[in-house]
Fold these 3 entries.
Entry 1:
Amino acid sequence: EKFRSITEQTSDFIGLTDENGIITYASPAANKLFECPPEQMIGRNFLDFVEVSDFSNAVSAFGDVMRAGTKLRNLEFTLKRKDGSTFICELNGSQYNIASTKGTIVNIRDISNRKQAEIELQKAKEEAEENEKRFEALHNASFGGIAIHDKGLILDCNQGLSAMTGYSHAELIGMNGLLLLAENSRD
């Protein structure tokens, strides 16, 4: 009763299988994660809910748990909902052996949104790096002198400014840019 009360309160899916991989318990979170009532999961093989591309990983992980008692920690799998759509999950699991009944217990969390955010963040990072490379190429390819400054203090400049002024790139960084102008032009 305590176990049932705990599993009914969590948004993670908690499930039990027997030693053959047949689901013997599915928490109410099955409705949300798998879009399948828990009672329709019971009696089915857990592989019915694993995306084909992850079958061999799932079978291997299940075998490790059942043979060696390996604990599964933060494994990522693509699982299927009742309608065939998929989601990415993080799975933790272990073997149980109670009153000569052996099987697995798993905790499954949908991490699709997190994975999508990671992909978008990586894409944004790659775009920023590409933009920086383009800027640097344009910056250095210019024949004119270009400087980026803060209140006159040169933070960065291109080789064109160095060639025009006779100062090295290193000498220009940190220099007051007004010093590059003729004295009568500074005002």
Entry 2:
Amino acid sequence: PNNPMALLTLGRAHLNFTGDVRKAAEYFYRVLEIDKNQEDAHFYLARIGRSTGNMLAAENHANALLQINPYSVPGLYEMAGIKDALGQPELAREHLQVVLDLEPTSAPANLEMGVSFARQQMHEESGEYFRRARNLDPDNPQVLYNVGVWYMVNEEQDQAIQMLSRVVSLAPDHRDASYGLGKLYYERN
């Protein structure tokens, strides 16, 4: 009953397979009763807090995780998401920058940084990170979709059509890319 790995596995099973967030959290809290420095338990509790809107709990667990391991990439991502949800995009980008310092060739980190800048309508900065992400992972539909939207915003229709067409060819069920592509073709008659 006090095996932290078994409890973590049960918590993840409830979180990922049954969707019972309350039961999952119970297991993760039991892990922390056994080992208050268990990184995965803090990570999942931060994620649960963010997904349920309990931002105080999310931030507390992400902080605890980053105090245990300041270079925890999952913890840094989670804290970036929390800061973004709290309306603190600059702080979110600081955490993403640490991820990029640790993993400069991370397409997901470059993509998230681009998205963060795009949300603030910082077009030039977002484009820089989107292009990096595309160069690092040229067949990732989500990366290509964001690059395509960036081209749409920049009114570069030919490039936007090229990117969104590639997304639809890689992921035919990507509704947002299909919509964007349809919108572009409609605007061109």
Entry 3:
Amino acid sequence: MKIRSTLTAGCFIFALLTGLVGYFGGSAITRISAEFDTVTRDGLPAIKTLHDIRHAGVRIVASTSEFGLVSVVGRNGVAARHQVEEEKELQEQGAGLYQSAFSTLKDLSDRLDPETRQYVQEIDRAGRDLVALSAESMETARRVSSPAAILEVKERFEAAERHFLDVVDRALALERRRLVTRQQEVHDSITLALFTLSAASAVALLFAMGGGTLSAILISRPIALLQ
């Protein structure tokens, strides 16, 4: 009866140790998975979307500037008129890309930090100003207004461009810093998980060796007495 109890206790201890190692391993994997999801679901898409917004803004600025230049300098040539139409199409494409990218950023904003959500609002205002002044600048150049009127619109458009790029760049810098922080958190979690699993495995091994030795002694003594 004593041998049976010893074997049962030994199996129970080994099962308990195995369960503890599995618990620590599962907890570590869950924590790492949550932090990794935060990086891939929030950080990286936000950075990519901000890059798309910046690219769209740069395209709007370039097309608007080319449209104004060609409209004023070569307005009487057939090739110039053809290029004007091309630049207008490029500007419209840029505005469409901006709207699409900003819509994506707005969908992501619910999962972003409050500071980043504030940048989303600033980007919205700066983007609407940029698109509106782009259209006004192109219309002014198309109507061949006075040089003073063209210069005045150009200055306001350039100010809107600088403000837009400044806001987007600051948002990008913030998200990059947060991404580095999250990457470090994932790295720290992996290091902690490795240490926890190693410590739990070492403790389980020591208990298993000690329990196995004790079980062997407790079992061998009655057998020796019987012999």
